[in-house]
Amino acid sequence: MGTTHAQQPYRPAPDQNMAYLMRGALETEARAVAAFAASVGIQTLEAAVQAIDAAPGPLIVAGIGKSGHIARKIASTFSSLGRPAIFLHAAEASHGDLGLVQKGSIVLLLSHSGETTELSDLLAYCTHHRIDIIALTGRADSTLACAAKIAITYGAVDEVCPNGLAPTTSTTLALAIGDALAVGLAASRGAAPEDFRRYHPGGKLGARLMKVADLMLTGACVPTVAPDAPMEDVVIVMTAKTLGAAILAEGGRPVGIITDGDLRRHAGGLLAARARDIATPDPVCIGPEMMVSEAVTLMTDRRISACPVTSPEGALVGALGLHEGLRAGVVVGSGREP
């Protein structure tokens, strides 16, 4: 188990300015995290990750006060990475919420002192029902640490509160340790970006991890025409579909593309032409497994509004328009997404 020693007390002098004080607070908390990382027994963290991974029931992350707020965030992070986790308010546990803790659960319990009165009922319940506890606490000799199967302890820390009392450094440290456990579990399970998107289907994160196959037009929605099709037919197809382009297909493969811009550039005598006379040959194609963010960046950089989507064998399987990608929430910016 890891132990960090208190740094020199962070006590601002009356004449110190605000910027200096805030920088000192950040540096003090950073030193505490670095000191724990340097001193912690990695075997303890690995044992905690293995225990969380092996438990068949949900991970219960519990705490009260500031530790409760940190516990809630840690539970959310585990859930984001695919490990079912539930936050349990330690005081509410004594008033019916102990029902959340079932056989097969494992409890990650946070308390800086390890002696918080409200923990007593939860500790007694877990001990009686032989439910494993992982303690995250500052004191190795605390009641919590002694009751736990695995105790992650970080020792005395210097709270950056001007009075040295309000939980500040200790909660930052607990949050960082929780993140380390969640990252360790994700790595041990081989979590991939696709797994993360599964739990974040909405918002910019979901858009960033969306694949072309999730958004592309398929089947009858893909505006395809034969290379020798009269432009009158091409215009009808483009008007009926939503891509703003028509894909010339031959033998099931894309051989050209006509966009709205092409129609404008060839407005004179347009209806007397054939599709192959107007089309851009050998269009830029993308694969269904490409990330939408990458496809949008490609289209933006190449100044094209739509791409055929092809299989690894070159067969036409769909189409993606730039506007569909933008509507999905992907931000354009030289390859940098949200």
What is the fold's blueprint, element by element?
Layout: H1 18-39, H2 42-54, E1 59-63, H3 66-80, E2 85-89, H4 90-93, E3 106-111, H5 120-128, E4 133-137, H6 143-147, E5 150-153, H7 169-188, H8 193-199, H9 203-208, H10 212-215, E6 224-225, H11 231-240, E7 245-250, E8 253-259, H12 260-265, H13 275-278, E9 280-281, H14 292-302, E10 306-310, E11 316-321, H15 322-327
Parallel strand pairs: 1-2, 1-3, 3-4, 4-5, 6-7
Antiparallel strand pairs: 7-8, 8-9, 10-11
Helix pairs in contact: 1-7, 2-7, 3-7
Describe, in short, the structure shown:
By secondary structure, the protein is an alpha/beta fold. It is built from 15 helices and 11 strands.
Mind explaining what this structure looks like?
With 338 residues, the protein is an alpha/beta fold. The protein folds into two domains: 18-191, Rossmann fold; 208-327, Roll (CBS-domain), CATH 3.10.580. The chain is 42% helix and 16% strand. The protein is built from 15 helices and eleven strands. The strands form three sheets. A five-stranded parallel β-sheet has the order 2-1-3-4-5. The chain has a four-stranded mixed β-sheet with strand order 6-7-8-9. Helix 6 links the parallel strand 4 and strand 5 (150-153). The longest helix is centred in the first third of the chain and has 22 residues, at 18-39. The two termini are 38 Å apart. Residues 333-338 have low confidence and may be disordered.
Q: In order across it, which strands form the biggest sheet?
A: 2-1-3-4-5
Number of self-contained structural domains: 2
Binned strand content = 15-25%
Q: Alpha-carbon distance between the termini?
A: 38 Å
Please provide the count of β strands. 11
The percent of residues in helical segments reads 40-55%
The chain-level structural class is alpha/beta
- The CATH H-level superfamily of the largest domain is Glucose-6-phosphate isomerase like protein, domain 1
Main β sheet profile? 5 strands, parallel
Multimer state: single chain
Low-confidence stretches: 333-338
**CA radius of gyration:** 29 Å
| Tally of alpha and pi helices | 15
The CATH topology name of the largest domain reads: Rossmann fold
Q: What is the CATH architecture descriptor of the largest domain?
A: 3-Layer(aba) Sandwich
CATH class of the largest domain: Alpha Beta
Global geometry: elongated
Encode the helix/strand succession as letters. HHEHEHEHEHEHHHHEHEEHHEHEEH
